[in-house]
Amino acid sequence: MFRRRSFLPAICGVLMLSLPNPVWSNQKREPTPNFLFIMSDDHTSQAVSAYGGRLARVCPTPNIDRIAREGMLFRNCFVTNSICTPSRSAIMTGKYSHMNGVYKFTAMDQSQPTLPKLMRKAGYHTALVGKYHLHSNPVGLDYWSVLPGQGRYHDPEFIEMGDQSPTGWVRDGKRTAYRGHSSDVIAGKALDYLKNRRPKDKPFMFFCHFKAPHDTWEYARRYGDFLEDVEIPEPPNLLDDYQGRSDALKKTLQYIGSDWGNHTNFRRETKHLEGQTRRKMQYQLYMKKYLRCVKGVDDNVGRILDYLDESGLAENTIVMYTGDQGFFLGEHGLYDKRFMYEEALRMPFLVRWPGRITPGSTSEGMILNVDFAPTILDAAGAGPHPAIQGRSFVPLLEGKTPADWRKSMYYRYYYSHFKTEPHFGVRTHEHKLVYFDRIDQWELYDLKRDPLEMNNIYDDPGHKDVVKKLQRELGRLQNELGDDPGDVGNNPRLGDLAPKAP
Ligand code: CA
């Protein structure tokens, strides 16, 4: 075809010289990497032993840790809205809740640009297995097999591509049940994809999403004895009395022992106990269930990493591991997420990229869930999409933090259940300022001196200047990101839910 018009090569040469960088840099990146994005539900960094911490000894996660040992561990990866569906939507779109339309547990508008659509356009085979929880039928995925909603822990049902309902809702599709524990079944489906389903002539963008360790923490039977006789170390603020804090902590129902949701009260097992003794026992029982689920995820991550090694795929596959947000494991007496306190705000993030990331490296750089999509697109050699608000952290992976890299991040949680007050705030490397807008109360923490966030210094006269500076920064971020403080998330943008070609 090129021979028919002899002037074409000359034109191509001129065009190539004038093309923007991404195409050239893509040509340097040989060969195009595959992506394995592993995400668990509610797996928090305190329960990933690579982060150290009080649980590292009792519940090591050697397989997940391996990703950091052979790659990089991020100590400051944060979620922009700490609940499942909103975080998953932020990851898939690279946009904050107020821009992607998913403030709470509503369905994601599939008509907007998403990571699967953009990766497919970049020449990737795109697939997802496991927990999806975006409610609307996936668009942009070449293969999917997902749990309806939260799905079941034991003998889970899946809805597969082709079995979806024409109405556009995942839950209305045809369900097929599988025998076994969901973590084992999901890893089995991941191996099936990698071995049999992906086309061998294309790079892949594969999402493997575990349901565990989300409540109600039903572990596989083989872990029933794990930690049986072990006393789980307590966080120093398990019995936090919330003194000096806003009313938000006092009002929330996500404390250990709460009857709301019936997840951590263990009524039968603790009925002979009272007060603090009861709370401590509830903590032990909660943690054992949670950590047994974590153990199941870690063992299954090991199965998948082993296959990457055996098949030779490891060499050219970028492996990422994260949880969809952080989670409280007894800190402030809490479980669940939602609050902007460190344990729920911080996501575990470990990444391996052979030949590009120095093994065993650590980054203190502040990265966000909205950065995952632009980073993956960048690493794939695809150009940035203008709708994406996050920023590629590929330079951080290479150990080079740009001078203008973010030094503060914006967070916003919209009220749903648990009586956890809505709030928004700003976190820097030194401080955190939080505003509970519905009750008009503020909290300020010095994260260096008070990493447990027990001492609210908002009213301290010595911190007036810090408050002013952070309030200005909060306003700047809201302005830059296009968030209106008056938009309380009551009008989610559902958009077009019907499945259709991207
Ligand atoms: Ca979650």
Question: How would you explain this protein's 3D organization?
Answer:
The protein has 502 residues and is an alpha/beta fold. Helix content is 29%, strand content 15%. The chain has helices spanning 8-18, 21-28, 62-69, 84-93, 97-100, 115-121, 182-197, 247-251, 267-270, 275-311, 342-345, 372-379, 394-397, 464-481, and strands at 34-40, 72-74, 77-78, 125-130, 143-146, 157-160, 175-177, 204-209, 317-323, 349-352, 361-363, 367-368, 408-413, 423-428, 431-436, 441-446. Strands 7-6-5-4-8-1-9-10-2-11 form a ten-stranded mixed beta sheet, sandwiched between helices. It has a four-stranded antiparallel beta sheet with strand order 13-14-15-16, with helices on one face. The protein has a two-stranded parallel sheet with strand order 3-12. β14 and β15 form a beta hairpin. α7 (182-197) packs parallel to α10. The longest helix is centred in the middle third of the chain and has 37 residues, at 275-311. The chain is globular and about 65 Å long. It binds calcium ion (CA). Calcium ion (CA) is lined by residues 41-42, 84, 214, 324-325.
